[in-house]
Give the backbone structure.
Amino acid sequence: MDDNIKIGLKQLPNREDHNCFGCGPANTHGLQMKFFTNDDSVFSWLKMPDHLCGWDNIVHGGIISTVLDEIMSWSAIFLLKKLILTKSMTIEFIKPIYIGMELKTEGIVSEQKSDREAIMEGMIFNSKDVLCARSKGVYKLLKPKVAKRLNMMSEEALKDYEPILKA
């Protein structure tokens, strides 16, 4: 991805020891997505590795779903200043996404239904800015104390999210 595209965007912080398949820098088999924002949307750029194929050269639909869930999740976390759990999501596969393709993802808030629930949208574009997949998801919005009570993450991890939640 051309670093000039990122000019004017700020990178969202992430824990170096985070092991999430979608965004964890410590997960050597994962996507290791990094997220950037212009304060209205959240973006990520990635290139799909060979081991994530479905049919021959096409990216597995479950991986595409994961990418969309990640961009919507990080968009909800940053733009709504809450921790999240995915409640439901729908996906529209529009164009094939091939292994090795340069991709741009974008997430936005579609509607904040209450202080506990939001509808998010995620999109995946190819290098020609053609929409390849899109999704809508319903996300539960959680305060840190609720995430702690649900044992979603450690106290240390919760502290690392404070700069995002209070930005």
Observations:
- The chain has three helices and seven strands.
- The beta strands are 10-11, 36-37, 42-47, 83-93, 102-114, 117-125, 131-142.
